[in-house]
Design goal:
single chain, Glycerophosphoryl diester phosphodiesterase, 8 helices, PLC-like_Pdiesterase_TIM-brl, alpha/beta, globular, TIM Barrel, binds magnesium ion, binds SN-glycerol-3-phosphate
Length: about 240
């Protein structure tokens, strides 16, 4: 059976510390060598690490001046400086640059999931991520190029990143997936656990590409997927980091 990598989903598992630096530290302490996190754009174009399109579930305003702020305020309507007024359990929403730095310092492999808040922002997000990568000094930039994986449901976000390690994200495999995979030279496909059927996994493997699956929080399902030759599993379970098959 090929080696299977466990990835800490949303940095530390879906929940109160998801996509935060302290959450990722928990994942490191649990033994994870790889993390997945979500990147979105503020109104003024800063890539930040956050999952939801609207504030309120994770990040609440802690500024009395914003006390009445609608919890459904779209993240994409806020400027980077406005985000200082929001916190995830007392912790600021980190920028993509801060999370990159953290992962590099802790030798974590990363899967950067690009989440455009609306279709017309998809390419803009790709360029913002590319620009942040270009700021990295060598040899860190080369490490990112060699190890990190960039994925998106919005394939347009991946276009500016062509040449890096790319993965198409789907819930279930789309009919014309291979056209997109070829166009982007994507090396992998990431599927929802319900979409990772034996047939879908086989079709992807036939083209020489790897399959990774989200979100797997059950060891029996994990074992089945490992038997199908899946290369990686995204999990919310921090206690799965050391589990092997
Ligand atoms: O990247 C895989 C997975 O994270 C996609 O789902 O909603 O948790 O970002 P979501
Ligand atoms: Mg994600």
């Amino acid at each position: 059976m090929p080696t299977l990598t466990w990835w800490a989903h949303r940095g530390s598992g879906k929940g109160p510390t998801e996509n935060t630096l302290s959450g990722m530290k928990t994942a490191v302490d649990a033994g994870f060598k790889a993390v997945e996190f979500d990147v979105m754009l503020t109104a003024d174009g800063l890539p930040v690490v956050h999952h939801d399109w609207v504030m309120g579930r994770c990040a609440m305003s802690d500024d009395p001046a914003l006390a009445g702020t609608d919890p459904l305020t779209p993240l994409a309507s806020l400027r980077a400086r406005d985000l200082r007024h929001y916190s995830v359990r007392g912790e600021r929403i980190p920028s993509f640059a801060e999370v990159m730095q953290f992962c590099l310092e802790h030798n974590l492999q990363a899967n950067v999931e690009l989440k455009a808040t609306q279709p017309r922002d998809a390419i803009r997000l790709g360029y913002a991520v590319l620009s942040a990568l270009s700021e990295l000094p060598e040899p860190l930039k080369s490490r990112v190029r060699a190890d990190w994986v960039f994925s998106s449901f919005y394939h347009a976000s991946l276009m500016p990143l062509k040449g890096l390690r790319l993965a198409l994200l789907y819930e279930t495999l789309a009919d014309r997936w291979v056209v997109h995979a070829d166009a982007l030279q994507a090396e992998a496909v990431h599927l929802h656990v319900l979409g990772a059927t034996p047939e879908a996994v086989r079709r992807i493997h036939t083209t020489g590409r790897q399959v990774r699956v989200y979100t797997v929080n059950d060891l029996e399902i994990a074992r089945e997927l490992a038997n199908r030759g899946v290369a990686g599993l995204f999990t919310d379970r921090m206690d799965f980091a050391q589990h092997s098959f």
